[in-house]
Amino acid sequence: MRSLWQLIYRYHIFLVFLLLEVAAIALLIRNNNYQRATFVHSANQVTGNLYEKRTEIAEYLKLQSINEELAKENARLRTAKGPNYQKLTDDLYLREDTLYLLKYEYLSGRVINNSVNRPNNYITIDKGSKNGIQKEMGVVAKGSVVGIVKDVSDNFASVMPLINTNMRVGVKLKRSGETGEVQWDGSDPAFATVRDISRSANPLKGDSIITSGFSTYFPEGILVGTVENYRIPEGENFYVIDIRLTTPFHQLNYIEVIHNILADEQLELEANQEEQNGG
Amino acid sequence: MGGEVVRNILRLVFLILVQGLIVNRLDLWQGYILPSVYIFGLLMLPITTPRILYMVIGFAVGAAVDMFTNTLGVHTSACVFLGFIQPLFLLFLAPREGYEVGQRPTLQDLGMGWYITFAGILTLAHHTWVFFIELMRFTPFFETLAKILLSTLATLVLMVLGQYLIYTPNDRRKQ
Questions:
Q1: Which residues of A touch B50 (CB under 8 A)?
Q2: A195 lies in a domain?
């Protein structure tokens, strides 16, 4: 017994090193896991508030470009308003609540921290559970995909953007409808790679890549990017397509969080199905 | 002694904030240059710090830095590693007659050549750990290697410049 204590004492520094390293790596692995639950993330109150203060200062300095952006958005929305449309036929249409069910709701938010130069980037926004933001909601900016809400605190949320190597989004070719999956390789925030598009597809440079709408995160048809080049690797049956991402991750100011009102219903049904298949 | 502890804590807190709020936002050369200036606070820990304390402080500081970037575990593990090897290098690089009492690991106290060797090796080790563990694989190898070398150089330059701005050679004798 005494020699054991001597042994431990002799190597105690190395043992402490191993212990702390194991703890750190455990945190890392848990953090990379998509379904994690930890309170140490940039949506917490401390870093959240610091980021917000900094954004307030930085935003003051770029008010002009933000104003321009908002003015453009206003003009676009005003054009889309009802009185601007001329009636084409005299048929009457009745828009009944019983015919249409609101499925997606948009909540606006402001980006208070954003990184683009790491393999695993994150965005922090200034809206949290008090504003109705929940985990696993989709995030878009000006009609193109940004990412998915990963953590929420009372007043903040952190978003895992497309430019995070742990992120995958179900997509399809807009023109012909073949589905695949987009993932970022960690190098250039302007490009990503779509895989699993069947070889029956006929992609062309410039084709739009949109969300497939299969998952509960995004409605169908939200723009992800455009085809840059494509190939079928030797001996494989699927295309590997390099796409140019539509979202300018370098200059995100305002984003919209998508609340899928029917998400729980869909997930429950799919979970039931899997249970039955499993058992 | 108490003043020394407070000074070290304040320096670390200040550098963590600088790292989290300013340096991480810099987008230099499309992410090829990502300096970790906060490790200056760890390299400045007194030479007489107990070995276990180096690692415990490293764990806490790394976790704080990771909180800003949502990379929990990346800087934490790198700083624990740094805390493990830092005293070994201090021992290895010690002058023949040992360190003088009150001598700090700075370029003013121990000279430019000593400091570049000391800080260079440790920064390189820390950055190598950070970049590869964040990727969790060794590809793309050369691109990551380039990032490591450029970032190490940037961190080193900033640490040397920082010391010229803040410290004077007589600092130690005045205290």
A1: none
A2: yes
* Cβ contact, residue pair B67, A46, below 8 Å: yes
Do A19 and A134 lie in a common domain? no
Task: Among A20, A25, A118, select the one facing B69 at the smallest CB separation.
Answer: A118
| Number of domains present in the structure of chain A | 2
How far is it between the farthest Cα atoms of chain A?
Answer: 98
State whether A263 and A144 are in the same domain: yes
- To the nearest whole angstrom, how far is the Cα of B172 from the nearest Cα of chain A? 30
- Residue A180 contacts residue A195 (beta carbons within 8 Å): yes
Structure tokens at B61: 């500081």
> Is residue B34 scored above 50 in pLDDT?
yes
Residue A206 in any domain: the answer is yes
Give the number of other CB atoms < 10 A from CB of residue A197. Answer: 24
Instruction: Please compute, for residue A101, the number of CA atoms within 13 A of its CA located in the half-sphere on the CB side.
Output: 4
Whether omega for the bond prior to residue B87 falls within 30 degrees of 0, making it cis, is no
A262 shares a domain with A217? yes
Find the helix or strand (DSSP H, E) in which B19 lies.
helix B2-21
CATH of the structural domain B2-174, one choice from 3.30.420, 3.30.43, 1.10.1760, 1.25.40: 1.10.1760
**A102: pLDDT strictly greater than 80:** no
| Residue B88 contacts A, CB cutoff 8 Å | no
Q: Which of A76-90, A183-197, A205-219 is least confident?
A: A76-90
Look at residue A40 and tell me if it is in a domain: no
Residues A12 and A83 in one domain: no
Q: Give the ipTM of the model, two decimals please.
A: 0.84
CA distances to B46, B64, B101 from B19, in Å: 22, 10, 31
Q: Where are the beta strands (DSSP E) in A40-167?
A: 104-114, 123-125, 138-141, 144-152, 157-161
Asked if residue A51 has pLDDT above 60, the reply is yes
Distance of alpha carbon A29 from alpha carbon A168, whole angstroms: 18
Residue with the bigger pLDDT between B63 and A32: it is B63
Beta carbons within 10 angstroms of residue B91's beta carbon: 11
Q: Where are the beta strands (DSSP E) in A22-135?
A: 104-114, 123-125
Chain B, nearest residue to A50 by Cα: B21
The answer to whether residues A183 and A228 belong to one domain is yes
In this structure, are A163 and A237 located in the same domain?
yes
